[in-house]
Amino acid sequence: MIIAVVNLKGGVGKTTTAVHLAAGLHSPDSPVVLIDADPQASALTWAENADTPWETISLAIKSLDRRIGRYMRTAGAVHAIIDTPPGDLSITKGALLAADLIVIPLQPTGADVAQMAETADFVDAVRRETGAPAVVLLTRMVKGTVAARTIRETLEPFGLPILTAEVPQAQAVGMVYGQPVNDLGHYATVLEELKEVAAA
Ligand SMILES: Nc1ncnc2c1ncn2[C@@H]1O[C@H](COP(=O)(O)OP(=O)(O)OP(=O)(O)O)[C@@H](O)[C@H]1O
Ligand SMILES: [Mg+2]
After folding, report:
1. Are 165 and 175 in contact (CB under 8 A)?
2. Nearest CA to ligand 1 atom 15
3. Closest residue to atom 10 of ligand 1, CA basis
4. pTM of whole model > 0.85?
């Protein structure tokens, strides 16, 4: 399975999501390669600092769709997670074309919603070629807020399915950057739901 974690907006939780999904999917029997397609290489730096058990490759290239199979074979990987940069249409397009499943992390803020149209349109255009399912993952959710209560309704016009599983705003998630991921937290439920979407 190839999962692309995509949002053209910056700072929405793409790298955090990509690394947790890699941690959850990786096992010696079905190894994961994390493709860091962001020139800032945050996922690679994370892997370096934490000595993560899965392979991480820095590949900020626009032809991922054509090359990913080769890199997965070289890494002996069964699954690939692609972490993408914000605002780079060429790299993001390659990642979307390569994907069997597209995950769009989104925070329930006005700025995130305002920029969602660009990402949603872009994802839609590429999905017309591949048919890969795309889902929104709500991240940094703060219980009891108006934003958390209304975000699903606000996103309805985009016509993208939204995962039932959500990732709360949590210091533990924010602080895990560069550390081993020993506890998937809510990402365990996210991963189970993603497997169901992929199998549907
Ligand atoms: N659930 C969470 N709770 C608290 N902090 C979080 C959570 N998810 C992510 N963060 C923090 O939010 C910031 C942005 O997250 P992250 O780097 O994953 O986003 P990104 O979309 O990859 O950003 P960029 O577009 O710059 O690559 C980071 O400091 C991260 O630690
Ligand atoms: Mg990132």
Report:
1. no
2. 13
3. 174
4. yes
Q: How far apart are CA 86 and CA 52, in angstroms?
A: 24
Q: Residues 36-76: pLDDT tens digits? A: 999 999 999 999 999 899 999 999 999 999 999 999 999 99
Question: Could you say which ligand is closest to the alpha carbon of residue 7?
Answer: 1
Grade residue 168 by pLDDT with cuts at 50, 70 and 90: very high
CA dist 193 and 164 (Å) reads 8
How many angstroms separate the CA atoms of 49 and 40, rounded?
A: 15
Quote the pLDDT of residue 174: 86
Sign of CA dihedral 58, 25, 179, 112: positive
Beta partners for 33? Answer: 55, 80
Mean pLDDT of 178-188: 94
Cα 14 to middle of ligand 2, angstroms: 5
- Which domains does the chain carry? 2-180 (3.40.50.300)
Pairing of strands 134-138, 101-106: parallel
Residue nearest to atom 11 of ligand 1 (CA): 174
Atom of ligand 1 nearest to the CA of 140: 1
